[in-house]
Queue: 2 jobs
Job 1
Amino acid sequence: MKYELVVGLETHVELLTKTKIFCSCINGFGAEPNTHCCPICIGHPGTLPKLNKEVINLAVKAGLATNCHINLKSNMDRKNYVYPDLSKAYQISQYNIPICENGYIELSSGKRIRINRIHMEEDAGKLVHKGGDVYIDYNRGGVPLIEIVTEPDISSSGEAREYVEKLQSILRYVEVSDCKMQEGSMRCDINVSVKPVGSCKLGVRTEIKNMNSVTFMTKAIDYEFERQSDILENKGEVVQQTLRYCENSNSTESMREKEDAQDYRYFKDPDLVDIVLSEEDVNKLKKSLPELPDVRIKRYAEDFGVSKSDAELIVKYKNAADFFEKASKGLQSPKTVSNFIIGQIFRVIETESEREKFNILITPNQLNELVKLIEGNKINMNLAKKTFSRMLETGKSAADFISESDMQEISQSELEEICKEAIKSNSKAVNDYLGGKEKALKAILGNVMRQTKGRGNAQMIEEKLVNLLKNS
Amino acid sequence: MPKDNKGVIRRIHKLLLNKDVSCQELTKRYLEKINESNLNAYINTCEEVALESAAKVDKKISSGDEISLLEGIPMTLKDNISTSGIETTCGSKILKNYKPIYNATVWNDLKKVNSILLGKTNMDEFAMGSSCETSFIGGAKNPHDLGYVAGGSSGGVASAVAGNIAAYGLGSDTGGSVRQPSSFCGVVGLKPTYGAVSRYGLIAYASSLDQIGSIGKTVEDVSIVFDFISHYDDKDSTSHPGIKFDTQGNLKKDLKDLKIGVPNQYYEGIDKDVKENIISALKVYESMGAKIEYFDLPEIKYALPVYYILACAEASSNLARFDGVRYGYKASHYKNINEMICKTRSEGFGKEVKRRILLGNYVLSSGYYDAYYKKAQNLRGLIIKAFDEAFSRFDVLLTPTSPVTAFPENKSYNSPEEIYLADICTVPVNIAGVPAISVPCGFDSNKLPIGMQIIGKKFHESKILNAAHQFEVFTNYSYNKDLDMGVNL
């Protein structure tokens, strides 16, 4: 039998607030253990939480950017469970009424992954294992999080990847989170089930906890799909359980089964008052949002003539998109700029995090000047590309590599002379070409290009050569 | 017997200003008396802190600086109010030797005006109890008869104030814990409106019901302290913004046309002596020009189950943090972290606390939540509404504080419910979040004090303190006692 995959994602994202969610401690990564702590975030008896307003603002922004409905009235609940890194033995979260509900993220195929809810909560501390002992670092305790929960709408590991990357991109655009999976500021729990193709009934699901890389997430989904399909194929039953993904063996292992599921005894936190927003508050936040990735992609395609897939590649990284917009100013063909970014800059900065930072040596203006030379037929594309490589390496401008004479537009007569000379001195290639080997023309073309020092336009030269050879 | 109806705070203030006694001498005398006392009112004393503040006050007085009313007044705090560097046990073994690293807002305020903290007073473990006897050091005794309990849970504060080993004190009231011991010990105790006094630093029992209140010899003392500690606190989200009280300025107003509601349901099944005394008190009010009207408040029959469900639910969560990992008592032998937490809690908590934690976890657990916790929340709404309606007709309500006077020590009970029944008069006030005061109104046949409860509308502390003060001046119950501070008054 054929099976299909059903995946839902729960993504935890740390918010970019200055201070923690319920106290005035710094919200920062990488400090000495237990230095960003106070009686409130280590849950000392008698202390009370005070909700950071910035957390509400960022959660609402995240909701607006993912097409959610914003609940004007919500509240914080207590999720009770005992673990040493959870200093109060309950996590303050939102249960019955989350701040955002019913949104979606649209994939490039046009498929919408529905978002069930976004709620606010506090992070727990961290256990640190050292030399056989266990220590607790409460720096992360009380760091503000939002949890974004999708409906089970994802049907391949590729869609899961696209959803997560799109979510990252959106949350970075609206400056809600830096979404660094390797630093733990974004973590995913994956709910996976399989069902016979076409069946309406969902299968038994397993939950894989705490994925901190997109690559491992896709591997875990693929592995779990195979594992569950095999079980069903052999007439077995999938056991509802919580799993851990092992990177080394690329497999999942059980953490706990359903019977051990915790009863969190949720109830409204009596230490905090209801969160009440006005329409006006929400509208203000809506107005403060920057242009979102989807709108940008559409604009780049419609206004700049950039292909949708290229636009998606650039828009994914806000810094790259901002660079593109600045470098395209006043140009006839912004598409040339996007080609430089994708074809050359992205070849130099390859990783996701590098592209996100977009730390390159040249300014948008430098690229703009270079493209203007191309558009003015001062240099051909070949020379431009070479020049751009050197610009990227050194941070220097085009003028530093191209002399005035290089930029003189070549005259038709001069070009014709050079072409004739090339035909004369490449008799083998000429014969090959005339004998039907069209590729042989490239050798002659290359010769001409060298002679013109890149001033000639390749297409123009090719046409000239074909004409001359036809008439010879 | 003083003739000017001045409370203890004003009398001490005058002594200090007149240099009849130095603050240090006074403090030493109080500390000596605490050491000699057999009331078991204090869990710990803090001589050093007290004398240090006293020296500051003396210096100010001798250099002619003005001192505020509460400056240099020897006082006490219930042992669930956090005091930085000073042991705060909540009457529990699990917090033995626990020294907070921050101050509760109320103590922060009082410390700023050089209040003399004599020590931390005894209480039922985590404020769970009505006799003070669930304390890990045993209960505080009733100064009127050492064979009787001081009441609870703020038994230590009431006992200390009644026994003249503190000029006043702060307790906490979740279901009557300030008012009931005040009633048992013949002193005055105020439970303010929920949100009037910051809870920051009060070690929580049931967060939606807890409120810090003052206990003193006279209504004026309680009023002075309440005016000082009631204000908005940014650290407590449930504290009410923009409030500032001047209840003192309103104490002397006459009670002409005051509308007093008397809810019939509070007078069913109460002790005969208590009932008689309250009815005489009502007559006193009538003679002062107040209008008395009996009415029905049937909703209070739900108050006890609602209280025990909500309070225990919140407590089960509030007390889950005591795991031996970060502070307080920690079991000494264990194999792993789970066993450490289990043993710490099994050994650290007393029986009543364990009972309420179990009950609380039960009513919150999935499958039972709707039947208990949710239903109790709905009924809470009903009780709040019933009080709202009553206050649309009356200025204040008058009831007994407790259906009985102080119980004998170590009294045995058939079931916990029997003890819980003693809270019937006080818990509705916490459920509704309204203010109430307990004022002495006579004695029973065993010469044990009887207290009456005056309940007011939210943030109408002025009205109930005024009514209480007028009664007190008229009857002289509060003044008819020797302060015996060992100094020449």
Job 2
Amino acid sequence: MNVSDPILELENISLSFGAVHALADVSFSIYPGEVLAIIGPNGAGKTTMLNVINGVYHPSEGKINYKGQARARMRPHQTAVQGIARTFQNVALFKGMNTVDNIMTGRNLKMNTNILLQALYWGPAQREEAVHREAVEKVIDFLEIEAVRKTVVGRLPFGLQKRVELGRALAAEPEILLLDEPMAGMNLEEKEDMCRFVLDVNEEFGTTIVLIEHDMSVVMDISDRVVVLDYGRKISEGTPDEVRGDQRVIDAYLGVAH
Amino acid sequence: MPEELAWFLEVLIAGLLSGVMYSLVALGFVLIFKASGVFNFAQGAMVLFAALTFARFLEMGINFWFAAAITLFIMVVLAVIIERVMLRPLVAQPVIILFMATIGLNYFLEGLAQGVWDTQVHALDLGIEDVPWQSVMDATNILISLFDVWAAVICGALVVMLAYFFQKGRIGRALRAVADDNQAAMSVGIPLQLIWAIVWAAAGLVALVAGALWGQRLGVQFSISLVALKALPVLILGGFNSIAGAIIGGLIIGAAEKLAEVYLGPIIGGGIEAWFAYLIAMLFLMVRPQGLFGEKIIERV
């Protein structure tokens, strides 16, 4: 897997909020086509790391290279243009809109008829809408959510909301998919479904996946590599087996006797 | 036609026509509410600002269309400045913070408008005469003001245009997405800042047209900013986030207050027109707080 060049390199990333060092000198690379898990105890800086990759936060020190190019300071909608899509820890769907419309927003960047045609909703704009609608239906089939196509997502149970949110991210056909605790708050069956979808996305579309997860059995099952953060520092990196046997990781999770 | 019926129709039509103008003002609120979940307290001040600027340009002897174009340009620039200076730093803040910011903006714009120009009453002539529609008058004996008809046509056209622009396809969806969740909207590549600037510019256009039409009626002066208050009952009736609601709500409020004035006025005393709309709104709030067409409020417990 690691023979190719990294798609995204994080070099010596540091980020502080006031006196709190959320990230301190963290470096790792993300390789195309892999499933990379970021794990660590609560407050380790996992979501912060995801937000740095996504452009929500800008590191106070360090460099980000995307496809070998140094990346400038970016806003989230610019990283989206570059092919990075994400889901959120607490589900950030457009609650008043139905499933289809939510996933359609994911196609936003793929649409390119100009604003005037859009405004008139005429000719090319209408055809374009139909084309993208088709892509959305494929995502809906893929995630097996046909039954709730027209349901306002605010009414859906949490597990399904997470699935719709994954659908919205997938609709953008991203190169890198960031998943912030995709299985949190799910029952066993829902977790198994979600695992299957994540692996299918990775295999069928070759999408690079970076995920944060607390459920260790899930992490060990589906990831190719694992990065472990603790108090904003990287304490370990490797295959699930390597990380599992690392004494620093065991100490971080279980505490050290003083 | 019996005289009674003709009189009823005359009142109803006058009400509906003025209702179209309420719809337009309400639409200015709806656009911003849809895109940011914020009730824009400064909409009235924007109406004053646009009308006063337009009136003063005309007084300088500038050609009508050119004056309209410069005023519109100023409103667009104003929208961009508001986005830059006020909205951008407040991204992801609670809605109440943004609302407070629009209150500040309201007083700032009122002061700016009257500081740059002045506080006198200015006449504004759009070249539309306020005379009865003669052929209708002759045929049916119903008196309809031609100015009202023209105003309604202009407002109606603008309302339809904006409704279309903001409801269909990608832009409509982007708008609703931005309103629902800023962070998530940015994550799917919707440029929040651009959407906000577009929406505020559209609200500026609405303010200009509303200000010009009401300006000819009432004279351009401070009190013109109070027409925004008439939009409140319209919004409550129609729903704060519904364009269709703003249109229907405006018509209902316009017709209801004129009919109440004429038919209830003699019984319970005149001046009903000033408060009847608010009474309807209040009663309506108890029955259907989300308005006729508003998105249903979903709360998971």
